């Protein structure tokens, strides 16, 4: 198990916000992640909310901009926020902002020069999950959410691990990456030209042949989002969900854009959504 180095600790809304660094054996580089824990005296084994951030982001974006700690403290929810990719001088990168460091796409790369380090799916579902469970004793129910590239990650990780996660939510997710420019570029680089291999990392494609547990999904999409029509296209996932009778809710938010202002506006509702689904299953 990785040794954790505490980088930051802040008391906030009766909880504590932490930032840690550790040497990841999965990614072969040092990684940071952030963790919010509600009041331990009130909530001894809180449910765990996973947040996956978008292109160019780190774990700091959500902790510093979303304003989620107040609601999480009130509701008794722990939150864990990984970085968006492996990082370091020896880690492959690109001059393009939408590829390489800061753009891991939450998959396991199979192509060079990316394959040695770009295994964000395994890092999240195995290594960081073990840290949350073993070092922080977070063994309660789990939910997953994310924004943009991270929304894609939340949908894919959630659908591929439906027995683990009770629900999924996302803000402006890339729902069909194999059919839009951001995803095509990343998948070609990380996975190669065989598009059949792309299907397991594409939420819309996963849902077309989905036979797993139907865990509820909530998506918020701003109608003033400049990426909405070209890169995001939530209607594609909604169409598949309707055909499969899958429990998906897409909410169009008038006037909202792709920024963290939108996330801050609705993050409390997302946390409440996850807890309501947990209550429905008990």
Write the layout of secondary structure elements.
Layout lengths: L4 E8 L2 E10 L4 E9 L10 E5 L7 H6 L3 H7 L2 E5 L37 H15 L7 E5 L2 H12 L4 E7 L9 H11 L11 H6 L8 E6 L5 H5 L1 H11 L3 E6 L6 H22 L1
Parallel strand pairs: 4-5, 4-6, 6-7, 7-8, 8-9
Antiparallel strand pairs: 1-2, 2-3, 3-5
Shape verdict: globular
Helix tally? 9
Oligomer: single chain
Helix content: 25-40%
Order of helices and strands: EEEEHHEHEHEHHEHHEH
N-to-C terminal Cα separation, in Å?
33 Å
Which structural class is indicated by helix and strand composition?
A: alpha/beta
Brief summary of the model shown:
This protein is of the alpha/beta class and 282 residues long.
Folded structure, characterized:
By secondary structure, the protein is α/β, with parallel strands linked by helices. The protein contains 9 helices and 9 strands. The chain has helices at residues 60-65, 69-75, 120-134, 149-160, 181-191, 203-208, 228-232, 234-244, 260-281; strands at 5-12, 15-24, 29-37, 48-52, 78-82, 142-146, 165-171, 217-222, 248-253. The protein has a 9-stranded mixed beta sheet with strand order 1-2-3-5-4-6-7-8-9, sandwiched between helices. Helix 4 links the parallel strand 6 (142-146) and strand 7. The chain is globular. The two termini are 33 Å apart. The mean pLDDT is 96.
């Amino acid at each position: 198990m990785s040794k954790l180095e505490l980088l930051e600790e802040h008391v906030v809304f009766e909880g504590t916000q932490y930032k840690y660094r550790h040497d990841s054996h999965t990614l072969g580089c040092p990684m940071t992640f952030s963790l919010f824990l509600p009041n331990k005296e009130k909530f001894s084994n809180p449910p765990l909310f996973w947040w996956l951030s978008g292109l160019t982001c780190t774990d700091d974006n959500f902790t510093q901009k979303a304003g989620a700690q107040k609601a999480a403290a009130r509701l008794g929810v722990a939150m864990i926020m990984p970085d968006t990719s492996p990082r370091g001088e020896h880690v492959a990168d690109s001059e393009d902002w939408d590829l390489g460091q800061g753009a891991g796409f939450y998959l396991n790369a199979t192509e060079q020069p990316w394959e040695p380090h770009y295994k964000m799916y395994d890092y999240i579902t195995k290594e960081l999950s073990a840290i949350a469970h073993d070092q922080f004793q977070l063994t309660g129910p789990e939910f997953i959410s994310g924004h943009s590239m991270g929304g894609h990650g939340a949908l894919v990780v959630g659908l591929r691990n439906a027995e683990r996660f009770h629900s999924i939510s996302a803000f402006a997710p890339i729902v069909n990456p194999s059919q839009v420019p951001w995803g095509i570029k990343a998948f070609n680089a990380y996975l190669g030209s065989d598009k059949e291999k792309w299907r397991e990392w594409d939420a819309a494609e996963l849902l077309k042949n989905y036979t797993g547990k139907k865990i509820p999904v909530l998506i918020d999409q701003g109608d003033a989002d400049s990426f909405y029509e070209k890169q995001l296209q939530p209607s594609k996932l909604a169409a598949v969900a309707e055909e499969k009778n899958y429990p998906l809710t897409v909410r169009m938010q008038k006037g909202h854009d792709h920024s963290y202002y939108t996330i801050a506006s609705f993050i409390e509702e997302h946390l409440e959504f996850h807890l309501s689904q947990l209550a429905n299953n008990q």
